[in-house]
Amino acid sequence: MSPTSDDPDKARRFREAALPYLDDVYTLARYLLRDASDAEDAVQECYLRALRHFDTFRGDAIKPWLFAILRNVCNAEYARRANRPSAIDDAPEAAEQTPLWRESEAGPETEMLRRRDATAIRKLIDALAEPFKETFVLREINNLSYREIADAVGAPVGTVMSRLARARAMLRAAWTAEEEQSK
Amino acid sequence: MTCDEAKILLHALIDGELDAGHAREVEAHVATCVACAADLAAYRDMKRVLADTNLRYTAPSQLRARIEASLPRAERPNRRAVLRGFAMGSAVSALAATGLLAVVLRQDDQQRILSEMVSAHLRSLQAGHLTDVISTDQHTVKPWFNGRLDVAPPVIDLTAQGFTLVGGRLDYIDARALGAVVYRRRQHVINLFVAQTANTALRPPKTETMQGFNCRHWTNRGLNFWAVSDLGADELAEFTDKFETAMKANLEG
Ligand SMILES: [Zn+2]
What we know:
A: mainly alpha, elongated, B: Phosphorylase Kinase, domain 1, binds zinc ion
């Protein structure tokens, strides 16, 4: 550990600023890594690095800053796993072939999407390809604004928007496909 | 507006990220385009389902303990330091927003703060996060804030008006500590976030919707208020009115 992180005042400020977001960071790690114990390791490493670099944090929104660090840690983990590229060209065209949204056959008064339990929805999200999944999770689950997402992932806001559109199209397609199968 | 543009921008509309002018353009397109209208309805529906489902994970307690243990011990926080240096929002406008689409996004930080409030509301709904001090007695909740914040939020019992005081909590928005006063109506939780502001002008209440939650924001007597709840907009407006009326009565009485 670097000597500066022994500074108790810095540690206190860090604790107050960063610890309230532990669940947010852990949530993103679970979706990015899809493994509980890898996620724990990544989050711990993220907080160690964040404390070490807390001097460079200027007191603006801390969530995107923490997420950017977590993302770097997770990319290293991907590299270690070596079987999946971490990033991420904006290419996969699967979403382009998504079927058109179909009207619910049950009638307009029911929801168009059949309700599913959290576990089933988490699985559908887990199956999304990167970089669409991280954009989606940052928006829908971590509640970041487009600008904050852009900051966390280091992409222009326009790219964030198109990734999000793509992610939602993919999720919708997977959701519909599952409903078809369960009939 | 073409369908290709609309199919991207309708997401920004759903997410509350479009300025009023572009929101109207998307809505005008959707009004005349069946395909985009169906998309908009479907994605709104999907967002609602997602917002109603708990998709978050809770960090295991041993992970929290490990991280706590890796931090050097500190003495009790001094509250001036907690508030020092946390100016809301300056960084966001400084962020480099490239690409044409960025131009249509709102330039102010209101939306981002709103989204932080909704996040804080969601966090509070997780088990054990709602209140630091549990009491239906305003004379217990109010003093609890003293010493934890430079300016304690007003704590008003509205039980007789149909909103039960549940307790209070210290919350953090943008790493800035602020008070949350918690109310309940039926099974609905209302978080009333209160922060000091240099602006003493009255800003009348306005409701915005984000991720299925209503958020009513107003400024009065040098305090910023945000009431966040899944209550309907009319009932949240009623809450605001009852709160302000009681505030006024307290000050005059
Ligand atoms: Zn269209």
